[in-house]
Design brief:
Elements (H helix, E strand, L loop, with lengths): L1 E8 L4 H6 L6 E4 L4 E3 L2 E9 L2 H12 L4 E6 L8 E8 L6 H7 L3 E2 L4 E3 L2 E8 L5 H10 L3 E9 L5 H13 L2 H12 L11 H8 L3 H26 L1 H10 L1
Helix pairs in contact: 6-7, 6-8, 7-8
Keywords: Transcription, Transcription regulation
Length: 241
C-alpha cells in the first residue's frame, strides 16, 4: 500500500475559492455529510485570526451553493466550529470523485489559501496518474506532496504520524521544519524566532504564530498517544514508588 498526499486547487468550490483570499485561516471538515437529496449538512473547523474567519464566513454564506451557515462557537476561540448546509446539486465534491474512483482516503481534509490537502491510500491496482488526470479533467490543479510505501510492520505508526503532518498547513510544516533544521529546539540554542522568519521570508510575528500552532498540534497528538498507551500513568506510578 502507498500513502499519497495531494494538494488540490479545487476551482469552482466556495471553500477553496474564497479561502484563497484568506490565506491565514485553515479549514477542516470534522464531521461526515448528512442529509438526503439536495440538502446536506456537515460541520467544519476554522483556525486563524478572528477577523479573517469572520470575513470568510460572510463571503461563504453568500455563495449560491451554501444554504445556511451557523457558527457553533464564538469566532474568537482557537478552533471555531461552524455548521454548514449546502445544496449538493451545486457542490462539486472531491470526496465524491475519489469515492467514484474507488479510492480510499483519510477523512478531514484541510484547506489553506485555496488548496485542499488530501491523503490517499492506494493499492497496487490503483493508478495514481489516472486519479490525478481525473481530478484535473474537472478543471482542478494538483500538486503531489508525498508518495511513500507504507511498511506493513509499522503501518499503524506510519498512519498516526502522517495524520499529525496532515493536521499542519503547508506554512506550518515549513516553519516547524526550518526551526528544527536551524537547531531551535537544541538545549543550547542560538537560533531565534527572527532567524526562522528570515529563512522562511516572513515577518517574525507571523513565524511565531505558525510555529505556535504547529507545536500545539504536534504536542496534542503526542499527548493523545501517551494517553492511549498508558505511558503517563505508568510513569506516575513509577515516580510514586
Amino acid at each position: 500500500m502507498r500513502e499519497v498526499t495531494l494538494r488540490i486547487r479545487h476551482h469552482g468550490e466556495p471553500e477553496s475559492d474564497i479561502s484563497a483570499d484568506y490565506p491565514t485561516i485553515t479549514i477542516r471538515s470534522v464531521s461526515s455529510m448528512t442529509g438526503s437529496a439536495a440538502e446536506r449538512k456537515r460541520i467544519i473547523e476554522l483556525t486563524g485570526p478572528e477577523s479573517a474567519i469572520a470575513g470568510f464566513l460572510d463571503e461563504f454564506a453568500a455563495a449560491p451553493a451554501v444554504l445556511k451557515v451557523n457558527p457553533l462557537t464564538p469566532l474568537d476561540v482557537p478552533r471555531v466550529l461552524v455548521a454548514v448546509t449546502i445544496d449538493s446539486y451545486q457542490w462539486d465534491s472531491i470526496s465524491q470523485r475519489l469515492t467514484d474512483l474507488g479510492v480510499h482516503y483519510r477523512t478531514g481534509a484541510t484547506i489553506t489559501a485555496g488548496w485542499e490537502q488530501w491523503t490517499l491510500f492506494l493499492d497496487e491496482s490503483d493508478d495514481l496518474n489516472e486519479i490525478v488526470a481525473s481530478l484535473e479533467r474537472a478543471g482542478n490543479e494538483t500538486d503531489l506532496v508525498r508518495n511513500v510505501e507504507v511498511d506493513q510492520v509499522g503501518e499503524q505508526e506510519q498512519l498516526e504520524f502522517s495524520r499529525v503532518l496532515s493536521e499542519l498547513t503547508r506554512r506550518q510544516r515549513e516553519v516547524l521544519g526550518t526551526a528544527i533544521e536551524l537547531g531551535y529546539y537544541r538545549p543550547k540554542k542560538e537560533t531565534s524566532i527572527e532567524d526562522i522568519a528570515d529563512t522562511v521570508g516572513i515577518a517574525s510575528t507571523t513565524a511565531w504564530e505558525h510555529l505556535a500552532r504547529a507545536e500545539g498540534k504536534v504536542m496534542e497528538e503526542v499527548g493523545n498517544r501517551l494517553s492511549s498507551t498508558g505511558a503517563r500513568a505508568s510513569e506516575r506510578q513509577q515516580s510514586s514508588e
